[in-house]
Amino acid sequence: MTSSPGAEDATDWAAFERSLGDRIQHVDGNAVAGQLAQIFRGDMTAATGRCRHCTSETVFAEARVELDTSGFILRCPSCTRVLFTVVSNDKRTWVDLQGIEGISLPS
Ligand SMILES: [Zn+2]
Prior knowledge:
Blueprint: H1 10-20, E1 25-28, H2 33-40, E2 48-51, E3 57-59, E4 64-68, E5 71-75, E6 82-88, E7 93-96, E8 100-104
Antiparallel strand pairs: 1-4, 2-3, 2-8, 4-5, 5-6, 6-7
């Protein structure tokens, strides 16, 4: 089986998660509401994003979140692939949105 660079396989991810053990917490999008509000300058819990991999719409508050001390990963609840990643240190925050085709916000 071949895969493109950066492609993820859900089965491989499950093995990776097991290898991480207790270093990450599994929560939902409400757990990172404060960080999302800082990045996007507003409440994002009711925002939705369209998964680039399976095209399902996900309410951010209901996304699967993997949280550790350096940041978090939001995953699509339908296909488990990465929607976006946030990593911070004491000087900067990096946001990778490559798993999302678009974001919809309440007006
Ligand atoms: Zn998906």
